[in-house]
Amino acid sequence: MSGEDVHGIERDEPERDGEPLLSLSGVDAGYGETQVLRDLSLSVREGEIVSLVGRNGAGKTTTLRTINGILHPTTGTVTFRGEDISEFDATETAKRGISLVPEQRQIFPELTVLENLQLAAHGGADDAYSVSVEEALGMFENLQDRTGNEGSSLSGGEQQMLAIARALVAGADLMLLDEPTEGLAPYIVEDVMEIIADINDRGITVLLVEQNVQVGLELAGRNYVIDQGEIVWEGSSEELRDNRRVLDRYLGVSV
What we know:
Blueprint: E1 22-31, E2 34-44, E3 49-53, H1 60-68, E4 75-80, E5 83-84, H2 90-95, E6 98-101, H3 113-120, H4 133-139, H5 141-144, H6 156-170, E7 174-178, H7 186-201, E8 205-210, H8 213-219, E9 222-227, E10 230-236, H9 237-242, H10 244-251
Parallel strand pairs: 3-8, 3-9, 6-7, 7-8
Antiparallel strand pairs: 1-2, 1-4, 4-5, 9-10
Helix pairs in contact: 3-6, 4-6
Protein backbone atom coordinates (compact mmCIF):
# COMPACT_ATOMS: atom_id res chain seq x y z
CA MET A 1 0.00 0.00 0.00
CA SER A 2 1.38 3.40 -0.90
CA GLY A 3 1.62 6.22 1.62
CA GLU A 4 1.46 9.97 1.13
CA ASP A 5 4.09 11.57 -1.06
CA VAL A 6 7.01 13.24 0.68
CA HIS A 7 8.21 15.99 -1.65
CA GLY A 8 6.89 14.11 -4.66
CA ILE A 9 8.34 10.71 -3.72
CA GLU A 10 5.79 7.94 -3.38
CA ARG A 11 6.67 5.75 -0.44
CA ASP A 12 5.43 2.27 0.38
CA GLU A 13 3.97 1.84 3.84
CA PRO A 14 5.04 -1.31 5.71
CA GLU A 15 2.63 -3.85 7.12
CA ARG A 16 1.31 -3.04 10.60
CA ASP A 17 0.42 -6.53 11.81
CA GLY A 18 1.93 -8.10 14.93
CA GLU A 19 3.30 -6.71 18.15
CA PRO A 20 4.73 -3.17 18.25
CA LEU A 21 8.47 -2.74 17.92
CA LEU A 22 8.32 -0.21 20.78
CA SER A 23 5.66 0.34 23.40
CA LEU A 24 5.35 2.54 26.46
CA SER A 25 2.63 1.57 28.89
CA GLY A 26 1.48 3.74 31.80
CA VAL A 27 4.84 5.50 32.09
CA ASP A 28 5.54 8.10 34.76
CA ALA A 29 8.98 9.73 34.61
CA GLY A 30 10.76 12.95 35.46
CA TYR A 31 13.74 14.58 37.09
CA GLY A 32 14.16 14.08 40.82
CA GLU A 33 10.93 15.10 42.50
CA THR A 34 9.64 16.79 39.34
CA GLN A 35 7.25 14.51 37.49
CA VAL A 36 7.04 15.20 33.75
CA LEU A 37 5.37 12.16 32.17
CA ARG A 38 2.03 10.99 33.52
CA ASP A 39 0.56 7.58 32.64
CA LEU A 40 1.99 7.92 29.13
CA SER A 41 1.32 5.13 26.64
CA LEU A 42 2.28 4.95 22.98
CA SER A 43 3.46 2.38 20.46
CA VAL A 44 5.52 2.29 17.28
CA ARG A 45 5.38 -0.58 14.82
CA GLU A 46 8.36 -1.72 12.81
CA GLY A 47 8.89 0.34 9.67
CA GLU A 48 6.77 3.29 10.76
CA ILE A 49 7.52 6.96 11.12
CA VAL A 50 5.54 8.16 14.13
CA SER A 51 5.61 11.76 15.32
CA LEU A 52 5.26 13.04 18.86
CA VAL A 53 4.20 16.68 18.80
CA GLY A 54 3.43 19.23 21.47
CA ARG A 55 4.32 22.63 22.81
CA ASN A 56 7.61 23.44 24.54
CA GLY A 57 7.80 21.73 27.91
CA ALA A 58 5.09 19.20 27.08
CA GLY A 59 7.37 16.20 27.75
CA LYS A 60 8.58 15.27 24.27
CA THR A 61 12.31 15.13 25.02
CA THR A 62 11.66 13.42 28.36
CA THR A 63 9.78 10.70 26.48
CA LEU A 64 12.76 10.03 24.20
CA ARG A 65 15.19 10.04 27.13
CA THR A 66 13.01 7.51 28.93
CA ILE A 67 13.01 5.24 25.89
CA ASN A 68 16.77 5.29 25.39
CA GLY A 69 17.64 4.88 29.06
CA ILE A 70 18.90 8.30 30.10
CA LEU A 71 15.88 8.33 32.43
CA HIS A 72 14.00 5.40 33.96
CA PRO A 73 10.25 5.26 34.54
CA THR A 74 9.10 5.53 38.14
CA THR A 75 6.06 3.48 37.11
CA GLY A 76 5.05 1.76 33.89
CA THR A 77 7.12 -0.13 31.33
CA VAL A 78 9.10 0.48 28.17
CA THR A 79 9.22 -2.56 25.89
CA PHE A 80 11.36 -3.04 22.77
CA ARG A 81 10.98 -6.15 20.61
CA GLY A 82 8.99 -7.73 23.42
CA GLU A 83 11.74 -7.15 26.01
CA ASP A 84 11.22 -4.92 29.05
CA ILE A 85 13.98 -2.30 28.78
CA SER A 86 12.63 0.03 31.47
CA GLU A 87 15.74 -0.29 33.64
CA PHE A 88 18.30 -0.39 30.83
CA ASP A 89 20.79 2.45 30.54
CA ALA A 90 21.65 4.23 27.29
CA THR A 91 24.54 1.88 26.55
CA GLU A 92 22.29 -1.17 26.80
CA THR A 93 19.56 0.31 24.63
CA ALA A 94 22.14 1.34 22.01
CA LYS A 95 23.36 -2.24 21.81
CA ARG A 96 19.80 -3.27 20.97
CA GLY A 97 19.56 -0.81 18.09
CA ILE A 98 17.93 2.24 19.69
CA SER A 99 19.71 5.45 18.69
CA LEU A 100 18.88 8.92 19.99
CA VAL A 101 19.75 11.93 17.84
CA PRO A 102 19.48 14.65 20.50
CA GLU A 103 18.12 18.15 20.03
CA GLN A 104 21.56 19.76 20.41
CA ARG A 105 23.16 17.11 18.09
CA GLN A 106 26.07 16.62 20.53
CA ILE A 107 28.68 15.79 17.94
CA PHE A 108 32.32 15.99 19.00
CA PRO A 109 33.34 19.49 17.83
CA GLU A 110 37.10 18.90 17.89
CA LEU A 111 36.92 15.62 15.96
CA THR A 112 36.64 15.49 12.19
CA VAL A 113 33.55 14.21 10.40
CA LEU A 114 35.34 10.94 9.73
CA GLU A 115 36.50 10.60 13.34
CA ASN A 116 32.97 11.25 14.64
CA LEU A 117 31.67 8.43 12.49
CA GLN A 118 34.50 6.03 13.28
CA LEU A 119 33.91 6.58 16.99
CA ALA A 120 30.20 5.79 16.56
CA ALA A 121 31.08 2.39 15.14
CA HIS A 122 32.28 1.26 18.57
CA GLY A 123 29.82 0.32 21.29
CA GLY A 124 26.66 0.45 19.21
CA ALA A 125 24.33 -2.29 18.06
CA ASP A 126 25.15 -5.58 16.41
CA ASP A 127 26.30 -5.45 12.80
CA ALA A 128 22.82 -6.52 11.66
CA TYR A 129 21.59 -2.98 12.30
CA SER A 130 24.61 -0.85 11.45
CA VAL A 131 25.92 0.60 8.20
CA SER A 132 29.57 1.18 7.41
CA VAL A 133 31.19 4.58 7.68
CA GLU A 134 31.61 4.59 3.91
CA GLU A 135 27.94 3.75 3.30
CA ALA A 136 26.80 6.47 5.72
CA LEU A 137 29.00 9.03 4.00
CA GLY A 138 27.52 7.97 0.67
CA MET A 139 24.09 9.02 1.92
CA PHE A 140 25.23 12.54 2.81
CA GLU A 141 26.92 14.36 -0.06
CA ASN A 142 27.77 17.38 2.11
CA LEU A 143 29.62 15.18 4.60
CA GLN A 144 31.38 13.15 1.93
CA ASP A 145 33.10 16.33 0.79
CA ARG A 146 34.12 17.37 4.31
CA THR A 147 35.42 14.22 6.01
CA GLY A 148 38.53 16.07 7.23
CA ASN A 149 36.66 19.05 8.67
CA GLU A 150 36.17 19.37 12.41
CA GLY A 151 32.61 19.18 13.68
CA SER A 152 32.77 22.76 14.95
CA SER A 153 33.33 24.03 11.40
CA LEU A 154 30.12 22.52 10.03
CA SER A 155 26.91 24.44 9.48
CA GLY A 156 23.86 23.63 11.58
CA GLY A 157 22.40 21.53 8.79
CA GLU A 158 25.66 19.64 8.29
CA GLN A 159 25.91 18.98 12.03
CA GLN A 160 22.38 17.57 11.97
CA MET A 161 23.29 15.32 9.06
CA LEU A 162 26.41 14.17 10.91
CA ALA A 163 24.34 13.36 14.00
CA ILE A 164 21.97 11.24 11.89
CA ALA A 165 24.86 9.57 10.06
CA ARG A 166 26.48 8.77 13.40
CA ALA A 167 23.28 7.07 14.56
CA LEU A 168 23.24 4.95 11.40
CA VAL A 169 26.85 3.87 11.92
CA ALA A 170 26.09 3.04 15.56
CA GLY A 171 23.37 0.67 14.37
CA ALA A 172 19.99 2.39 14.45
CA ASP A 173 17.10 -0.03 14.15
CA LEU A 174 14.85 2.49 15.92
CA MET A 175 15.94 6.10 15.50
CA LEU A 176 14.71 8.68 18.00
CA LEU A 177 14.94 12.14 16.43
CA ASP A 178 14.61 15.10 18.77
CA GLU A 179 13.70 18.31 16.88
CA PRO A 180 15.87 17.51 13.83
CA THR A 181 14.81 20.64 11.90
CA GLU A 182 15.05 23.16 14.75
CA GLY A 183 16.93 26.31 13.79
CA LEU A 184 17.56 25.25 10.20
CA ALA A 185 16.90 27.32 7.10
CA PRO A 186 13.81 26.21 5.15
CA TYR A 187 15.82 24.71 2.28
CA ILE A 188 17.91 22.71 4.77
CA VAL A 189 14.71 21.51 6.45
CA GLU A 190 13.72 20.08 3.08
CA ASP A 191 17.04 18.21 2.86
CA VAL A 192 16.70 16.79 6.38
CA MET A 193 13.15 15.64 5.64
CA GLU A 194 14.36 13.85 2.52
CA ILE A 195 17.05 12.12 4.59
CA ILE A 196 14.55 10.96 7.21
CA ALA A 197 12.27 9.60 4.49
CA ASP A 198 15.23 7.83 2.89
CA ILE A 199 16.44 6.12 6.06
CA ASN A 200 12.89 4.99 6.77
CA ASP A 201 12.69 3.54 3.25
CA ARG A 202 15.81 1.55 4.17
CA GLY A 203 13.82 -0.14 6.92
CA ILE A 204 14.71 1.99 9.94
CA THR A 205 11.81 2.81 12.23
CA VAL A 206 11.58 6.46 13.33
CA LEU A 207 10.02 8.16 16.34
CA LEU A 208 10.14 11.85 15.49
CA VAL A 209 9.77 14.68 17.99
CA GLU A 210 8.99 17.95 16.25
CA GLN A 211 7.65 21.32 17.24
CA ASN A 212 7.28 22.03 13.53
CA VAL A 213 3.96 20.24 13.16
CA GLN A 214 4.05 20.43 9.37
CA VAL A 215 7.24 18.34 9.28
CA GLY A 216 5.58 15.64 11.35
CA LEU A 217 2.46 15.69 9.22
CA GLU A 218 4.43 15.29 6.00
CA LEU A 219 6.70 12.50 7.23
CA ALA A 220 4.67 10.49 9.72
CA GLY A 221 1.85 8.06 9.16
CA ARG A 222 0.65 8.39 12.76
CA ASN A 223 0.91 11.14 15.33
CA TYR A 224 0.67 11.47 19.10
CA VAL A 225 -0.07 14.83 20.70
CA ILE A 226 1.41 15.33 24.16
CA ASP A 227 0.39 17.99 26.66
CA GLN A 228 1.70 18.35 30.22
CA GLY A 229 3.23 14.89 30.06
CA GLU A 230 0.11 13.10 28.88
CA ILE A 231 -0.95 11.80 25.48
CA VAL A 232 -4.11 13.75 24.71
CA TRP A 233 -4.72 12.68 21.11
CA GLU A 234 -3.52 10.12 18.58
CA GLY A 235 -4.35 9.46 14.96
CA SER A 236 -3.25 9.67 11.36
CA SER A 237 -1.71 12.74 9.76
CA GLU A 238 -4.86 13.23 7.72
CA GLU A 239 -6.98 13.17 10.88
CA LEU A 240 -4.69 15.63 12.65
CA ARG A 241 -4.74 18.04 9.70
CA ASP A 242 -8.53 18.05 9.85
CA ASN A 243 -8.80 18.42 13.64
CA ARG A 244 -8.81 22.17 14.18
CA ARG A 245 -9.66 21.82 17.87
CA VAL A 246 -6.57 19.74 18.64
CA LEU A 247 -4.31 21.90 16.47
CA ASP A 248 -5.48 25.08 18.14
CA ARG A 249 -5.79 23.86 21.74
CA TYR A 250 -2.64 21.78 22.09
CA LEU A 251 -0.33 22.98 19.33
CA GLY A 252 -1.38 26.58 18.65
CA VAL A 253 -1.10 26.16 14.89
CA SER A 254 -3.22 25.88 11.78
CA VAL A 255 -2.20 23.85 8.75
